[in-house]
Amino acid sequence: MLTKIDKYILRNFLLTFIFALLLFSLIALVIDYTEKVSDFVKHDVSGRDVLNYFKNFLPHILNLLFHIFIFVSVIFFTSRMAYRSEFIAILSTGIEFKRLLLPYAIGAIILASVQWYAGHYIIPVANKDRLEFERNYVGNTKITKASEIHQRLSKNEFLFLKSYNAATNNGYVFSYIKTDGIKLKKKISASRCEYDSLKNLWVLYEVTQRENDGLKEKFRRHARFDFPLKIKPEQILKKHEARQHMTTPEIDAYVQEQRDKGSSGLNEYLIERHKRNAQPFATFILTIIGACIAIRKVRGGNGLHLALGVALSAAYILFMQFSTTFAVKGNLSPLIATWIPNIIFSLIAVYIYKRASS
Q: In the chain, what percentage of residues exceed pLDDT 90?
């Protein structure tokens, strides 16, 4: 059962967190508005649409800085209690140090649960409207280029493009392959291609065409060749932010669909999927670290505690970005990449806990 002391600490934790959330939300809204106000005026965006945009912008920015809010909140109210000697009085009653951390753990579980649910289901929906608004009214946010495109069109049809630019409607180093089991049936190669939206076909230039029929092979060259390939540019251009507005079930379905087609380059989606589980767990770790740091008096006061808290939470975010880069650009597993920061900071939490409790 929670004691009055537990409820007192838990209430301080949650209220301080809510205050920090509201304060940083106001600052973020003011900064973002000043950056985009010229775009709003330029496109004559209505006040209702602007308010709706900021409604969807807030979940994004709050989720991005959630761990800093947690750390700052824990350290701020804990440090204040420590400098009022409240923890000395509490521990003098015979309460063990680990028992003192119970309300912190409960508060962390509550906030981590909120973050977990929001990350899987609420924030992606908000991101969809936010990103659509930014594409329409804010600067030049449309993604029009893609490179190293490998696409499986059907069970035995494959497409490769070295690059494609929707702004100029030009693709380069085009290859289409059709197989029959392990046998090559047809291959069409072109140095350049364009998409004809009126005829719904691809126009290829400087084309070589090979067709195999048993021992017979046909070889042709074309200066221009109209190819009715059943894929459109918007299907080729994989938007970098697409994973941000997919709920977790949608990511799972998309990844499975692309794997069935033989597509590669899915690590960004897998990283997004695993981060939504890893980040709430980090909330618990950082809460314990923050409590253990601020629960003892040190020279420098609240300022030193806050500076250390911001540095550690920023280090966690930086480390997460660093490790996930290896998964996107290298061969590191997305699951391992997203959980490495939690493993390292768990070890840090154990070390700090032992020092604080000794």
A: 37
Q: What is the pLDDT of residues 177-235, one digit of tens each?
A: 888 877 888 999 999 999 988 888 899 999 999 998 777 888 899 999 999 887 888 77
Question: What b/e string do you get for 145-179 counting C-beta neighbours within 10 Å, with b at 16 or more?
Answer: ebeebebbbeeebbbebeebebeeeebeebebbbe
pLDDT at 63 over 80: yes
Query: In sequence order, what are the residues at sequence separation of 6 or more whose Cβ sits closer than 8 angstroms to the Cβ of residue 29?
Result: 54, 57, 58
Residue 192 DSSP SS3: strand
User: Residue 11 in 3-state DSSP?
Assistant: helix
Provide the pLDDT confidence category of residue 300 given band limits of 50, 70 and 90: low
The angle subtended at Cα 74 by Cα 72 and Cα 54, nearest 5°, is 50
* Secondary structure (3-state) at 7: helix
DSSP assignment, residue 237? -
What would the pLDDT profile of 152-168 be if each residue is shown by its tens digit? 777 788 888 888 888 78
Tokens coding 197: 């939206």
Nearest to 46 by CA among 126, 136, 178: 136
Contacts of 61 (CB under 8 A, 6+ apart): 25, 28, 32
Distance CA 209, CA 189 (A): 7
CB within 8 Å of 284: residues ≥ 6 apart = 105, 108, 109, 112
Instruction: Give CA–CA dist 250/257, Å, rounded.
Output: 10
Give the pLDDT score at 203. 93
Global model pTM greater than 0.85 = no
CA-CA distance, 128 to 304, in Å (whole number)?
40
- For 356, the enclosing helix (H) or strand (E) is helix 334-357
